[in-house]
From TrEMBL:
Binds 2 magnesium ions per subunit. Residues 60-249 form the KARI N-terminal Rossmann domain. PROSITE patterns: KARI_C, KARI_N. It comes from Hohenbuehelia grisea. It is found in: Mitochondrion. This is Ketol-acid reductoisomerase, mitochondrial. It catalyses: (2R,3R)-2,3-dihydroxy-3-methylpentanoate + NADP(+) = (S)-2-ethyl-2-hydroxy-3-oxobutanoate + NADPH + H(+); (2R)-2,3-dihydroxy-3-methylbutanoate + NADP(+) = (2S)-2-acetolactate + NADPH + H(+). Pathway: Amino-acid biosynthesis; L-isoleucine biosynthesis; L-isoleucine from 2-oxobutanoate: step 2/4; Amino-acid biosynthesis; L-valine biosynthesis; L-valine from pyruvate: step 2/4.
Amino acid sequence: MASFVSRSASSALRAASRRAPRVLANAPRAASYSLLSKPAAPTHRHGTRGVKTLDFAGTKELVYERSDWPLAKLQDYFKNDTLALIGYGSQGHGQGLNARDNGLNVIVGVRKDGESWKQALEDGWVPGETLFPIEEAIDRGTIIMNLLSDAAQSQTWPKLAPLITKGKTLYFSHGFSVVFKDDTKVVAPKDVDVILVAPKGSGRTVRTLFKEGRGINSSIAVWQDVTGKAKEKAVALAVGVGSGYMYETTFEKEVYSDLYGERGVLMGAIQGLFLAQYAVLRKNGHTPSEAFNETVEEATQSLYPLIGAKGMDYMYNACSTTARRGALDWAPVFEKANLPIFEQLYESVKNGTETRKSLEFNGRSTYREDLAKELAVIDNQEIWRAGKVVRSLRPDYKPESE
Ligand SMILES: NC(=O)c1ccc[n+]([C@@H]2O[C@H](COP(=O)([O-])OP(=O)(O)OC[C@H]3O[C@@H](n4cnc5c(N)ncnc54)[C@H](OP(=O)(O)O)[C@@H]3O)[C@@H](O)[C@H]2O)c1
């Protein structure tokens, strides 16, 4: 490793591209970035439109579309690059397989014989060809996609940073490490482009949507542009890993909104609201099944999908006049009660408190066991135990899914 680092950047780049075959044996040039079984040239459901300015409720925003990047252009753009995916968790799996199916040169770098190594083997990455220990993958790559867990990005940075030499591109899927650099110590080298592609969904969804011929929405951003091509590269990489639409943002905005959202309505607030509503029903003598049905089952099975499909007003309209009247009256009460909590949460994200907590917890050697204990507590809450029985009565219930 030391000898590689001391080589000049250009010779390192040449060496990297020599070592990486243009098109890897297990990555045939796919016919499409959509459904793999379709041999046809890529088409888009809505036709070719490309980058555009859209009016989002009165605010104009630029949206990039993958139709600007037909596969041939994408493959040509990256023909001299090797995408080195560092980490093969949820995002590594989804982004890596999509980029490979798109005919890009992809290699994976993970800890030898760890869980991710085994997973990568199962997915067809070949040791010594497309699967390497982390340092070797960085050595061979020109685009270093840091998809380790956020805590691991911080822990491994002192060892990995010197390997990210001039001419390479550093890629993240979260603004976490570089924005909170005072806490993570991830200070990007000055002479490389630093870009972000953050899919708005789990890595499994990144993969599923791609296989269905659709593409996930992703945020893209530039932290550092030394080549003048950083944004273009971010958009192209977003398409390469399976995005359909790319929304431009900054590293800061991406990480603030992401940490805030998952602590809020997406995950933290929803569990809190479910528990509070359920508790009052139970206190007033309602059975577990009734309390669960009125809190979770109807929400997830009937009402929230309507919001997803056509918006909140549509869902209200689809409900009884009685339900609608009550919801209209009580929504502002909940809004007022929750606004100060959301203000407090945003501040806690922005001032780094949430980052420090996350680094402390996820950096523990006992992290997996500690997490399992906390999740077991949730699994054992009456509401979720009742939920298992309610779910078992669904017509499409499959026992192995529990
Ligand atoms: N998951 C999502 O929904 C999502 C969505 C958008 C963006 N992101 C971002 O994408 C990035 C990757 O997230 P992820 O969810 O895919 O991560 P993850 O599933 O938590 O992946 C963890 C990876 O990090 C490796 N790792 C953990 N500790 C390590 C250490 N000390 N040394 C070396 N490797 C270590 C693991 O390897 P082993 O198996 O060897 O432990 C595994 O390959 C993060 O920046 C995340 O914020 C995630």
